[in-house]
Amino acid sequence: MTTQAASAPAGERKDLQTTKMMRTVMGNYFAELENGPKQGKKTAWCTSVGPAELLRALGYNVYFPENHGAMLGATRMATDVIPLANARGFSPDICSYLTSDIGAYLKGETPLKKMGMSGMPKADVLVFNTNQCRDVKDWFQFYAREWNVPCIGIHTPRSLGDLDEPIIEDVARQTEALVPTLEKVAGQKLDMGKFKEIVSLSRRCTDLWKGVLEAAAAVPAPITFFDGTIQMGPAVVLRGTQSAIQYYEALVAELKQRVTDGVAAVPGEQFRIYWDGMPVWGKLRDLSTQFMNLKTAVVASTYCNSWIFEDLDPADPFRSMARAYCRLFICRSEDAKEAYMEQMARKYKVNGIIYHDSKTCPNNSNNRYQMPERLDAKLGIPHLVIHGDLNDLRLYSEEQAKTNIQAFVEGFAQK
Ligand code: SF4
Q1: Which of 90, 91, 98 has most ligand 1 atoms within 8 Å of its beta carbon, as the pocket-test mutant?
Q2: Distance (Å, rounded) from C-alpha 16 to C-alpha 251?
Q3: Residue 176: its pLDDT value, please?
Q4: pLDDT of 305 strictly over 70
Q5: pLDDT for position 281
Q6: Is 95 in the pocket of ligand 1 (CB under 6 A)?
Q7: Where in the chain is the domain with CATH 3.40.50.11900?
Q8: What is residue 7's predicted lDDT score, i.e. its pLDDT?
Q9: CA pair distance 51, 34, nearest whole angstrom
């Protein structure tokens, strides 16, 4: 059986012009990381939703190892290096960002070399926030032991429903308590004026990134989830800087033009899908091509939206950072997640939801506690669960996933 979507020829994909700026923006970021120590700058490692603004205000170059994890996945180096970390006692069942990053370190190989770096930048301090999972702390502690440097962080409560004041107060105080150690390592005092300015830049970045993702609410969508996983780079590693703002101003303008001109990211778009959970980094291109051929646009995702921090407020940097980083989808209660996904599915007018059950990231796999069934009933749309992993391709059955996706989209056509 073939669907109308599958039988029609796929249209020509038009690349986003702004992406040409990406190499320069990210290249400059990696060059700063590489050259920082020679110029007397300290390097702080930070979890992806850690207190990056505070670190920048103290003059650190900020490095995000999860970005490195994603690069290891996207280049498919991860599957080769994970066993090295396993051999050192890190279970194959835990976060494959962690195991691929540590495996790459042990092997002395990294895709960062292709970005002009000599290797992973050595940390002067490692700063985590457990809002996303415990793995990030265990990950950073490995390097703290290796290099004998401080590993400090914020322990955010998880499964949060309402963001009550005592919780925000506690997380804000924990963030403030990092300052003395960070000042000591940085060799400088925190300048509150600079801190507020960086929170303000971060807020502007977040507003623009939201504009990028919300462009996909248009029919046809001018951008997909697969584009988003590439476009999110500056929002993750450069929030709090002017270069991220310039990049997203250009991208938002291009997307607005696309919407005006009716340019579709998936030419001939017929169906729309919400993607929940982690990307399958090593298979982004294959999945993107399959959906393109099925004339189906993956228009929204929990993942890309995780870098929208609308609570950031330069007038109250510590508390607003606490609020923003506690509102993160991954550390919310099942009810809060369900309400969020329901409004996203309606806003983006999706025909169905795909849940990626990522074997080594239970924290960001939302199909395990009846969420799909509850949302099916509320929204009246079907779901599909794909079993795989963010980085470890040995856990992903490509043929099964492809067949199931094809059948899922055929179901829309039959409706
Ligand atoms: S949230 Fe998942 S993918 Fe991210 S660091 Fe934690 S376990 Fe790894």
Answers
A1: 98
A2: 8
A3: 98
A4: yes
A5: 98
A6: yes
A7: 199-414
A8: 40
A9: 21
Q: What is the pLDDT of residue 415?
A: 78
Assign domain 20-194 to its CATH architecture.
Answer: 3-Layer(aba) Sandwich (3.40)
Bond before 220 cis per omega within 30 degrees: yes
Length of the chain: 415
Residue 79 pLDDT greater than 60, yes or no: yes
**Rg of the chain in Å (alpha carbons):** 21
Q: Quote the CA–CA distance of 415 and 413 in Å, as a whole number.
A: 5
Q: pTM of the entire structure?
A: 0.95
Cβ count near 165 (within 10 Å) = 10
Whole-number Å distance between alpha carbons of 380 and 173: 43
Do β-strands 352-358 and 271-276 pair in parallel, antiparallel, or remain unpaired? parallel
Q: Which atom of ligand 1 is nearest to the CA of 136?
A: 5
Burial of 92 from C-beta contacts in 10 A (0-12 / 13-18 / 19+): middle
Q: Say if residues 86 and 105 touch (Cβ distance below 8 Å).
A: no
The structural architecture, per CATH, of the domain 199-414 is: 3-Layer(aba) Sandwich (3.40)
Mutate to test the pocket of ligand 1, among 72, 364, 365 (most ligand atoms within 8 A of CB): 364
CATH 3.40.50.11890 domain range(s) in the chain: 20-194
